[in-house]
From TrEMBL:
Coiled coil: none annotated. This is Bacterioferritin-associated ferredoxin. Keywords: 2Fe-2S, Electron transport, Iron, Iron-sulfur, Metal-binding, Transport. Pfam families: Fer2_BFD. The lineage of its organism: Bacteria, Bacillati, Actinomycetota, Actinomycetes, Mycobacteriales. Belongs to the Bfd family. Residues 2-50 form the BFD-like [2Fe-2S]-binding domain. Gene3D superfamilies: BFD-like [2Fe-2S]-binding domain (1.10.10.1100).
């Protein structure tokens, strides 16, 4: 199914971007273009991101540690 008509991105393209490590709509837009133009599909893109991440097995092989490391900022010196 087409998710983003602006660039012709499908739900499979968005799911593939998430499987490759994208975890935000901006990251998906950078990888496949969906949600990067007019923005009307961003809600749908976010839903696909959530569904894809929820269905993925948890472990280092699926990029979970990479996503976690992006969320943790370095601690400043004491």
């Amino acid at each position: 199914m087409y998710v983003c008509l602006c660039v012709g991105a499908t739900n499979q393209m968005v799911s593939d971007a998430v499987a490759a490590g994208a975890s935000t709509s901006k990251e998906v837009a950078a990888m496949c273009g969906a949600g990067g133009d007019c923005g009307r599909c961003r809600c749908t893109v976010r839903g696909i991101i959530e569904a894809t991440l929820a269905a993925a097995p948890v472990g280092p092989e699926d990029g979970a540690l990479r996503r976690l490391s992006l969320e943790i900022s370095p601690v400043g010196s004491h």
